[in-house]
Amino acid sequence: MTTAATYRLTLPGAMLRRGFWLYVWEVKVAGEPEPWLYVGRTGDNSSPNASAPYTRMGQHLGSLENQSALRKHLVGKGLTLEECTFHLISHGPIHPEVERPANIEERKSRHAELMDLHRPLRDEVGAYERDLAVALDVAGYRVLNTVKWKPVGDPARWQEVLKAFSEHFPKLGRAV
To answer: How open is the CA angle 49-37-80, to the nearest 5 degrees?
Structure first.
């Protein structure tokens, strides 16, 4: 029988805003001196949707095969999720989500048009996701995932992203 306990999670309301966000999961494991990091972004590859970091938070720790990348990485390392402490550091939205018609039929009929608006934003933020994962790794952090992405982002905006995350990951400050 398990012992009941009480926990508190604080969630800033702004993390409910849909759009193109970057985030880093910091996973602390008891007995390990350094946390594991997982770098991600919002902004789907297959639809013109860009969810909130809060939404991705639950998906990453859930059990759906195509949404639980963080869980897979941790389990692959032999870690038990219930014994970890999770911190989610989010930056954004870098861009708002493209128009999202309320009517499902309109979403379907305008899918190609909405994807044309979505893709450039997704590609830009995907470049920052890749660059952030590389920068954290080069700075000496333990990064769980490798982000494979070809497009490039805006150098000035990348510096803003790097500066924002260096506040939480001080070794990144050397790259700013």
So the answer is: 100
pLDDT at 162: 96
Sheet order of strands, 142-143 included: 84-96, 19-29, 36-41, 142-143
E-assigned strands of 15-80?
Answer: 19-29, 36-41
- What is the C-alpha end-to-end distance of the chain, expressed in Å? 50
Single-letter code of the amino acid located at 165: F
What integer pLDDT is reported at residue 176 of this predicted model? 52
Residue 153 is which amino acid?
G
Residue ranges per domain, the chain? 17-170
Residues 167, 7, 38, 18, CA torsion sign: negative
pLDDT tens for residues 37-67?
Answer: 999 999 988 899 999 999 888 887 888 778 8
Q: Where are the alpha helices (DSSP H) in 11-154?
A: 53-61, 69-76, 104-109, 111-138
Output 16 or 173, whichever has higher pLDDT.
16
Please state, in angstroms and as integers, the Cα–Cα distance from residue 40 to each residue in 8, 52, 83, 140, following that order: 24, 12, 22, 18
b (16+ CB within 10 A) / e for 49-85:
bbbbbbbbbebbbeeeeeebbbbebbeeeebeeeebe
- Residue 10: count other Cβ atoms within 10 Å of its Cβ: 4
Helices 53-61/69-76 angle, 10° precision: 40
